[in-house]
Amino acid sequence: MIVGQQKPLAEIKAEVVPFSKLLILGCGTCVKTCFAGGEDEVATLASSLRLAFKKDGRQIKIEELTVERQCEDEFIKEAAAAIARNDAVLSLACGAGVQMVANRYAKSPVLPGVNTTFIGILEKQGLFTEKCLGCGDCVLDVFAGICPVSRCSKKLMNGPCGGSHGGKCEVNPDTDCAWQLIIDRSKDFGQLDRLSTYVPPKDWRTSNAGGPRKLVREDHII
Amino acid sequence: MSESYPRPPNHSMAEVVETNNKAVFKPKITVFHCFNAISSTAGADSNEYDISAVRMPCSSMTREVFLLRAFEAGADAVVVMVCPEGDCRYMEGNIRAGKRVARVKKILDEIGLDGKRLNIYPVPEKDLNTIDRIIKQTVSDLAGLGPNPAS
Fold first, then answer.
1. Residue A176 DSSP class
2. Which overall architecture, per CATH, does domain A2-118 show?
3. Domain boundaries, chain A
């Protein structure tokens, strides 16, 4: 899933200051799961903003709405009437959702309330960790299912480096060394010898380094 | 599409009493309590303050938005009364409540409302003396904090 974190209240407040009628639009998929932009977070943020503005002697009308997914046009159609009633939209979706709403509702300012952070997993309740960089050329088969692109701080294709100590990374001792994990898991499979094969430098053209990417599925286009 | 959460009830109309041309602050306190810890706050009523009570089947029902909306509804202080640690009928409701209260205290500080307006206390089952002491402490704290600046 896409993992995001709600922006600090002061930053959000500064974004919405010019508007007196605001729609806070939540997204019920990824950002709901990571507690950044689902129904609960919309309600909490709306209440916090109302209190903050009232304390400053200013009234702001805030409408709350959460759609299933902001990155799909079918779902954001539901927000049309609410968007029309308000001066601006504060989207608690990831960057894709914010831009989808902005694209459909060209006359409404659409502001981000979440910092989109990474593609990751829910490791345990309340802990989300990065697992994928979206590089466009998956190499998990070569590295025993552990991604050195997203999980090695140096993105080494032929590791580990000299900074791996006790299974931890020198960049951050709280981070597991991806290469230690690759070696341990390869041993479990009995495939450690595969790691002796040199892996050439990664071709980053399939990543965002090659410019914005597009996926076309002709079989789904009518 | 989903509906918003229901709001807690508004406080009574009696807000400020004028005595000898001097405004007397009559604090409004909203108490969220697990009904396994205390059945009601009736014994803590007084003419010196207003109490609104929200009974919950477990303190794990304490949600950030409910606490904030109590302040929106005019509460000068919000108190959450939970079972002592280890005594929660649902294992960890009081721990969850504690974490949510801590988060809302930070939000109140960011807003400038002062996180000291919100507190959580463990209450041994049906211990009326503890409830009385908590309310008195809250009223005493409010004497320094003053009325909710966003009410």
1. B
2. 3-Layer(aba) Sandwich (3.40)
3. 2-118, 135-209
Please give the pLDDT value at position B10.
44
Q: At a CB cut-off of 8 Å and minimum separation 6, what does A40 contact? A: B63, B64, B65
Pairing of strands A61-67, A110-112: unpaired
Report pLDDT digits (tens) over A68-101: 999 999 999 999 999 999 999 999 999 999 999 9
CA–CA distance, A125 with B126 (Å, rounded to integer) = 33
Q: Which sequence spans correspond to the domains of chain B?
A: 22-39+46-137
For residue B33, give both structure tokens.
């309590």
Run means of pLDDT, 10 residues per run, chain B, 151 residues: 43 40 79 86 78 94 97 97 92 95 98 97 88 93 96 87
pTM: 0.89
Which amino acid, A74?
A: E
B65 interface with A at CB cutoff 8 Å = yes
Residue with the two structure tokens 């697990």: B34
- Cβ distance B65 to A66 less than 8 Å, yes or no, reads no
Helix (H) or strand (E) holding B67: helix B64-72
Distances (CA, A) of A64 to A44, A60, B100: 10, 13, 21
Select the residue of B2, B5, B107 nearest A48 (Cβ to Cβ): B107
SS3 A113: coil
Which class is B22-39+46-137 in CATH? alpha beta
